[in-house]
Structure formats: C-alpha cells, structure tokens
UniProtKB/TrEMBL annotation:
Protein name: histidine kinase
Keywords: DNA-binding, Kinase, Phosphoprotein, Transcription, Transcription regulation, Transferase
E.C. number: 2.7.13.3
Domain of life: Bacteria
GO molecular function: DNA-binding transcription factor activity; phosphorelay sensor kinase activity; sequence-specific DNA binding
Taxonomic lineage of the native organism: Bacteria, Pseudomonadati, Bacteroidota, Saprospiria, Saprospirales
Record has Transcription regulation as a keyword: yes
PANTHER family per the UniProt record, alphabetical: HYBRID SIGNAL TRANSDUCTION HISTIDINE KINASE C, TWO-COMPONENT HISTIDINE KINASE
Species annotation: Flavilitoribacter nigricans (strain ATCC 23147 / DSM 23189 / NBRC 102662 / NCIMB 1420 / SS-2)
InterPro entries per UniProt: CheY-like_superfamily (IPR011006), HATPase_C_sf (IPR036890), HATPase_dom (IPR003594), His_kinase_dom (IPR005467), HisK_dim/P_dom (IPR003661), HisK_dim/P_sf (IPR036097), Homeodomain-like_sf (IPR009057), HTH_AraC (IPR018060)
Amino acid sequence: MGLKKVTIYIWAALIFWPVLSWGQKYYFRHFKVEDGLSHNTVMSSLQDSKGFMWFGTKNGLNRFDGYTFKLFQKDPSDPRSLLGSYVQCLHEYGPMWVGTDNGLFKYDEELENFELLRPTEGLALADIENDGEGNLWFIAANQLHRYHTESGAIHKFPTPNNMEYVDITLLQDGRLLITSSDALYLYQKADDSFQELDLEVKSSAERPFRINRSFSLDPTTILLGTRNHGVIAYDLENARTWDFLPTQDPVYVRDITRRGDELWIASESGLHIYNLQDQSYTNPRKNYNDPYALSDNAIYTLALDQEGGVWAGSYFGGVNYYPKPYTPFRKFFPNVSENSISGNAVREIHSDQYGSIWIGTEDGGLNKYDPDREVFTHYTSVDRGGTLSHFNIHAVLPVGDKLWVGMFEHGLDILDIPTGRVVGHYNVDDESELLSNFVYHLYQTRSGEMYVVTTRGIQTYDPVQDKFLLVDAFPQNMAYTCLIEDDAGKIWAGSYWDGLYYYDPKTGEKGSFLQDGEDGECISHNQINGIFEDSSKNLWVSTEHGLNLYDKAKGTFRKFTMEDGFPSNVFYAFIEDDEHQLWISTANGLVVYDPESGDKKIYTQANGLLTNQFNYCSAHKDRTGRMYFGSVNGLISFDPRDFVVNSYKPPIYITGIQINNRPVPINSGGSPLAKSVTFTEKIELKPRESSFSLDFSALSYTTPEMTEYWYQLGGLNEEWVPLEKNHKVFFTELPAGDYNFKVKSVNNSGIWSEEASALQIKVLPTFWKSNLAYGLYIGLIGFLFYLGLRFYHQRIKSRNKELLRELGIKKEKEVFQAKIEFFTNVSHEIRTPLTLIKSPLEKMLKKADLKSELGENLSIMDKNTSRLLDLVNQLLDFRKTELEDINLSFVKLNISDLVRNTSTRFSPSVKDKKLDLEISQPEKDIYAFVDAEAIKKILSNLISNAIKYAENSVGISLEKNEDFFELQVRNDGPLIPAHLAGKIFEPFYRVPGSENQKQTGTGIGLSLAHSLTELHHGSLRLDTSSSHLNTFVLRLPLRQEREFPLYLSKEAETEKVVERQALELAESANQPAILLVEDNEDLLDFIAKDLVEDYQVFKATSAEAAREFLQQEKIQLVVSDIMMSGMDGFALCKHIKTSLESSHIPVILLTAKSALQSKIEGLASGADAYIEKPFSMEHLKAQIANLLANRRYILEHFSSSPLAHIRSIAHTEVDENFIRKLDETMSEHISDPELNVETLAEIMHMSRSTLYRKIKEMSDLSPNELINIARLKKAAELLKKGDYKIYEIAEMVGYNSQTSFGRNFQKQFNMTPSEYVKS
C-alpha cells in the first residue's frame, strides 16, 4: 500500500471515528465446555484443507465438524497421543503441525495420532510457519528452528542476547519475516541470514513498545499487533511506520486476520473490526445482557473459514463464531446496559408519517424507534413513571399526528406524536360508549373510517360525536382479534373462538365461516389469528391450526398445515415482499412462501432469529421495504433484498462409526478400522458387528442445524433415503453381503453438496455361511458320499441277509398266527357247547348223591369242564392282547384282598403238593386302579405257575411306594436260566428240561400276563438275582390316566343274596311273558325248557324275529344273546329301549364277552342286566325274578301311596318323556269329569289302542284306572295343603259327588280323606 493511500486511511479514521463506531451489528455463536470443548481457554485455531475446524486449548486439541468436538488429549500411557496439554499454535503444511508446551507434533490424519519431533521434546512452541522451499519454521523455547520436512534435518539459529522471538510471517511475495518483541527481521536466503528492519515507534516507560503479532496486509504493508500501541503499520518500500488503528486507549493486540474488506483484530478489549473500504470501525465487546455479544473480551486467536466466517478463541469464554451473514436478521431485545427496546413480547408495529416506527409490547409499554439514528424512545404506564394508562399494549395505529394506543383492560390512549404527550383517553366508564377496555386491534379503512376491535364487539369511531358506534353487522358480546378491508371494500373480522365473519357496507351482505369436521373445504379452525390480502387479491387467514386461502368464487378454503411442509400448524402474521412472496410468522419459525410455485423456505434460530416463536398481529413493512416481525423474545428486522444465497458446497465426510453403540478404535486389536473412518474406503465387519451407526457432516458452519441429509446403501436399497436434519444413520443386524454407502446434503438455500466418497461395507457371514464353511461342506459331502457308497454296498449285503432272516421270521409268524387263529376259532365254537354241558351238569349235581359213584363222576366232569373253560378264556384273552383289541376299564380295587382271595382259591393245590405258602402284606390294605378281570388273570397265572413248579415252598409279598405297588411271587422249583429271562414271556414258549416238560401247560399263561401288565403301563419280569429261587416281580401304577370311579365289593356274596331274593320272588310270579332270543337253537331250547315251568316263554332265533314278537305279544321281559348274525344283541336292546311301545320292557343280555368294557357297552345300550356265558341257570332265573319283582314293587307303591308320583314308574328316557307328557295332559284336564282314554289319545296324538296298551304294560292299569288314581293323588296333594274344603277338592279333581270321591279315596289308599288330613 502506498503512502498516499495509507494517509487517506488515517485521516478518514480520525474524521469519522465517532460516527463509524456505530457500524454494523455483529452476532456471535458461542461454543464452550458445555458444548463439548475441552477447555474454555482457546490459544490457537485454524481450518484445515478438508474443512474441519481445529482449536488448541489449555487442555488439548479439539476438532469440530459443526456438530461435535473430537478431543485429542494427553495420555501418558499412549506414546502416539498428544503429549502436551497447552496447544500454543497450529499450522498446516502437508500434515497439521501442533505446537504445545511439550514439543512439536505431526498429526497423522489417517491414524488420528501424533508423532513427536524428538528434538523439540520438552520445549514450548510459540509459532509455526513454512516457506516455499519445503521448510518448516518454528519458535521453540525462544529459539528459531528450521526443519526440512523431507530430509528431517533441523537447523537452530542462534538467539542474540535479550531477543524474544514472538512470530513468523510468510509475506505475500514469499519472503519470511521473523518478529521479535521489538524488531522485525527479513530472512535472506542467499546467505542464510536475517536483515533487521528499522522501526520508528514512539515508546516510553509507561508505554513500552512490544510486538505480539505480525500480519501481511498487502505485498508492501505489514501490520504489527502490539501490547501498548494498538496496530502499527510498516511500509516495506519506504521503511515508514504509523498508527493504523488509532484509539484513545492502548489496545493489547493478540491476533490479526482479514475477512474481505474487513480487518479483524483480536485484543484484550474485545474485537476491533475495521473496514478497509469505507473506513468504518466497530468494537464488539462482551455484554452481560446481550446473549449474542462476545463471551469474553480477551480474544487470543482468530481463524477465517472457507465460507467467510470468523472464529475467535477467547481466554475464558471458549470459541465465538461469526458466520457470514447470508440472512442478515437484525435483533432487538431488552438490554438494560444500552438503548434498546423495552419489552420482549412484541405486539403491533406501525410507521408514522414522520418515519418513526411505533412498537407495542405486552410487557414493556410503547416504543418509538428511529431507524436512522437507531434510537428507542420508551413510553410506559403511569404506575411505572410514564404517561400511558397501562404497559400491556395490544393495538397501535398512527393517524396523522396522533397515535391511537389500545391496551389490555385499560381502554384507549391518544398520544400526540410530535410532543409525546397523552392528549386523550377512552374507556367503558366515560361517555364514549366504548364496549370494552380490552382493545385488541385498531384499523383504518381507505375512506378513513376507524374500526376498534374489542373483546365484546366491533365499533367505529365518530369524530363528530367523539363516540364509538356499534357495528351491527358483526355479532355483539364476542371477542374479536383482527380486521381488514379487502380490495372490494368488504370488511373481514376474525374472532377468538367463533370463526371468520364478513360484512359488505355497500350491499349489507354479511356472513360467517366456521370449522366443520365433516366439511373438507371449510376453514381449518375457529380461532382466527390474522387476515391478509395480497397483491393478487387473494385472501389469507391464519388460525391456531392451519393457514387458509379463501376461494372467492366457491366460498371455500384451501388449507395448509405441517403436512404441506410448514414448520408449525399455528400461523400468525403476513407481509408480502416486492417479489410477491409471503413472509409468514408461525409458532416454529419464519416462512417465506411463493403462492405461485408453492416453494417455501423456513428460517429458524439457526439462521439468526431471536426465537422460533413469533407473536400475534406483529408484522410490519416500512416505506423502504424493510420488514419487522415481533416475537415473544423481542423484534427482528431485515430487508429480503439483502439475503444472499449460500452457494457454498461444503465437503461431506464420514466422521465416526459406532458398532453396537460403542466407538470403534483405530488400528487396535480386533478393530475393523485400519485407519480413520474418514479416510477408509472399505470396511469389513464380522457377523457380531452387523449393528452399527455412521456419523457424517457437511463441513458448513453457517447453519449446520438446517442442513438436511440423504443416504444410499447400495446392495440393500438403491433409493436415496432422507434423514432430514439427522447426521447419523443406524443399521441393525445388516444381513451378510457387500454394500456401498453414500451420503449427500442440502443446505438451507437448497444447494446440494458433493457426494461423500463411497464407503464399501462388507458384512461377513457367520462361519457356517462363509466360503471356508462352504468348502468344508463340499469336502464333508464328498466324504459322506464315499462313506455312503461304502455303506451302501455293505448294507446290500446285510440287507440280503436280513431279508432271509425276515422271511424266516415271517414264516414263523404266519405259523404262529395260523395257530392262534385256529385256537381262537375253536375256542369261540367251544364256549356255547360248554354252556350246554355245564348248565345240565349243575342241575344233575344238585339232584345226585355226591358220595355215590355217579356223583363222583359228575364232580370230575364239572371240574374238567371248568378247566377247559379257563383254557378257552386264556386263549381268547391272549388273542385280544396280540391284536391290541382289548380295552381295559380301570376301577379302584382292593389289591390286598384280591391277593388273599386268589391265594385261597389255590389252597387245595397247595395242600395236594404239601407246599409251604407264605404271604407277606402290609397291615393297611393297598388300593389301585386296575382292570378287575385282567389283574385276576395276571395273579392267577403267576400263583398257578409258582405252585405248579414249586418243590417245597411258595412265597408271595406285596409292597407299596408313592406311585406303584409291587408283587413278588417266588418258588423254589428248578431255576430258570438268566438268559431265558425274556424268552419265557413269549407265547407258547416253555423252558426246556425234563422237570419242566413233566408239567402240563399251553405256554401262553406268562405271555398273557406280560401283555396285560403292559396294558396297565406296568412291568412284569423275572428277577435272576437269587441263586435258589425263581422270583417274578409284578410292578403296576396305583393310578391310571383313564379311571372309572367305581369300587367293586365282594361280588360273590352279593350275587348269593340276589339269587336268594330272586328265587323267593319268582315263586309268587303269575306266569309273565318272557321272550328268549338266541341263535344257538340247542341253548335256546335248553333255557326255554328250564323257564317254562314259571313263565310264559316265547323263542326267537334272531333279533328281527324278536322285534315281530314284541309287536304282537305282551312281553314283560327279554333275554337275548349278544353275538348273533344280522342285528346283534346290543342293537336289539337299543331298539327296545328307544321305542315308545317297548321302552318299559327289561332286557337281560347273554354273551361270551366277559370283559368289563363289554359289560359297560351292554349297560350303555339300555340293558337291565348282563350275564356271562357259560352261566348258571339258577343265576339267570334269579335275575329274571328280581327284575319282574322290582317292577311289581314300583307299581304297587305308585298305586297305594298318595304322594308317589307317576314318573316313578318310568325307567328309560323314552318312558320319562311319555310319562311327563301324559302327566301334564291329565293335570291340565283333571277337573274335567269326562276325561277318558279317548280324550287322552286325541290330545297326545296316539291311537286309542296304542295308548291303552302302553299304559297297561307300564303301570298294569287301564287308562281310566290311571286317570282315577291321578285324580285321587291330586286330591291328596290339595288335602295336605289345607287350603280347600273336601267338597271343593272333589270338584277340582273332576268328581261330581263328594260321596263318590270319599269312597274311591278310601278304596285306593285305605283311609278316608278326613283321616288322611289328620295323618
């Protein structure tokens, strides 16, 4: 810079100093320890070539990406950490160089660690610079060093006595300037020496000359920042110095940088900003009442970023950032230390005719703002020392030289603008007829008519009468919020809760719009916040829930909400700019909206707003086009024409990775990162590392909060996925595969960044899905194939052998099955002849003399007949178990008693063989759920075998534990070999040996016992532990899954009692008719011949023939076999019991099926009794007599007992239904003397003969006899109640004569009605 130009700078600064100090307002953002900074004392700063900001502090180094600080601090355990705590200076030359209090370090950005330049260890660094020759110059411990970065050579320059090196500056022409505390030295490359420059600076003991910093302003001018003399300029061409930044007080300069035409000087007294173009100057300082001022006055370091923002590091206040003002919002908020606006909650804003702007606040009174002088004049309430009626201002309107001021519940004040005095006041108590003291809004139409909007209605002001007149077009006693006149002269008014109203003064037309949930084209909400008409005559309405555009042609509204991209559903005020865009304040930011294109842009605190929440009715545009919006935290103003599009395209980097929510270390054991993720192109993750997150940042610091991001993960989704303002993305359990991650961003101006370098991500599969695993699989498959092939050949050989063996087994099974089939068929055929032998034999034994030869022969025949029957039964039971066709019924049985009884049955055999029988049982009887028939067979076989093969003794012991009982049967016969312990339970197997072969047997007893035991879910085995005893161990569970809650008592004794009673009853029978049904004619004839002496017997050889007898004869009992061709006995029984004509007839079933399940099946079909073949004829006779006698007893009881109900004679469900219907019919007509069988038959829809026969067979009474008994039983019931006289009861039950009634009652019940009443 020439001398002439410098001289102009100086004179301009001196002349304009007082005025220029009021220059541009600067707003700073603050970053402190609370925001992640390692220390609030910031000593150095710079932006590296990639765009990251670096800050050196007293507690390490910080890298900032716009969102987070990454810290590099001293770690004594890590030699590659930053071993110095005080970071004094930073410089980027190739890598970044970090000067600390413990040496100079080179930063490795890929590994994110540091390498100490060993010669500097323990030395404190003051400054670092580089030249154009590959040298790094630095001051360490007050000594100048030169380090060649390629060769590693270090040269130390000697330090003259009393010299203090402070700074190194690379001049714009490439020369190197070394600055000491009081001198300048130019480096002479030719002879590797330094040339001292002459400085002429006045100094004194009070103001000694000390240099802190040097700065190359242009190729010929050097600026020196001093401790006591501010900024000194030195002209290299003319060797002249002068004061560049004259101030009245000394300025202690710490750093200097240049931002365009602005020179920024960091000092102990804040920042000094000097504009080189217009010579304006300002001195931003710390202000405790200004949150946007510097956080500290001691500024130590300055850094300029690539966007034009300035970073100022302070000693106590961290980092202050001044971004490039793309959106220069001017902020006005209360500040007690300087002239400022008086309130936070800013309401209406208007300009007067004098150019002043009037601002009403809800908490600080009225403000007049002079935009030229930037001065506020305050008007407050009387109680606060002012002149206004109240400090809560809602409405402001300049009219000529008067200002109308509407207040909260304090009426209207009229202020004289030139004098500032209140010249008038209106309220509801004076003669002005003001409706309400709460004046919400004031509006003047184009014709000059004044509208006053209050909480109780809308009025106009009449200046002639000085009164307020009610506007009848709008409803009264309603709170209104706003009012405008549209281009057509129509008045629109918004209410607080009741929607939108309009009124046309020309035509008198009026109406309203209300929110209707069912109408999609209605207004969005009934609380109206503002009404605005734009230059295109569109009417806009803001509400508490949505923005509305009125369609004048249709009378409908189009709604806009957050779903349309707006930041909030609450809209406040409007302004239209010169480009016909709408600026709309909301509860969450300021929106600029283009109605034509629909484009919108949102501004928030990140863009420079005081707050995101604005206030009602608070927007104004002055005559210059500058806009004002009031918020709850103050006022902002701006000129949209000053806004600049942020066209900076920041680089975008991946800045961090976390796996399973944990940061990933670099180049450490097990880490997938070999270098910083920022420089990583490909990363390989293990299966357990498939859940991870990535951090990224577009390195733009102006409004990072407004930057929006998109990412793409190729291999998973080729679409770009929006993240909005999130700068982190999470992936959870990403499937194994190869992926390509990309990210991009867009700033608040809609400018897209460049895509970040792609990060290739490979997620390894789990081991069993890896290539190695697949190789092992293939190898294993090949090996298995070889083994399989080998096994196949061996298998073929063994299979052929197995086939031969199976053929032999199959042949054996066929022989075995043929044997079983033969025995089974023979057994079935034998049972019926056995019955014919056993029954006559029993009769003969009764009549014969047992001591005679005939009696002895007959006894031998009976004994062998029983043995043959037992063998037949075993064969049949064994066959059932083989076919798994046996169903056991588990009932509760006394096992102890059963063991005793079974042992007793074999007492004769024990005596015959002179054996000792020992039985051991617990004192308390053992009960278990077993099948009675099956357990008897098991015990009989075990005890029978023990006795058969015993020589001297047989032992039986019974024990019980918690879930099982165990029976042991021992004998001292020939020992069964241990290897045959399982073989002996096979069918038809007998232990070889002469002793065993002497004993007769079939070889199926143990097999049958073993099968029945398994059906009980138990076990039967041979215990071979004894050396001299054969011990069979039976183990059965006490409970079963399917149990029948029955308890079987001693059957034999019961049967005897039944037989004895039945015989006695049979002697008095009167030849009842009995039907015998049996397909074996011999057995049929035998039974009939034996019964014909006592009964009238009918014979049938099939169920079909039996049904014909039932229709033709009066049968009183049926005895039927079960196993018959055609319809079996079960089906016949079910037919008898379900037919109305025969359901009362008792049925006895005869069968060879002896299992309990068969008995249950028979009883379920309706049988009254069940007798097994072969049977005793005496038993059959007793059963028949018993059933008939029971029937007779029931009928006699019914007839003779006054209170016995007719339903007692029913035995089946069919009978019960018939009797119930008959009883109901007789009860309904009991008072009818004419009730008879014809009437009953007609009512019950039966023929007379059928009804007669059914009643006769069931009750042994004629229908008329039954009707008479029913009358008498009803009379007995009424007599017992005692509510009626005897003659009244006689009439009620159908008797015409009391005498006849008394005679019949005595005949039937053996007592007169009077006697019955007294009984």
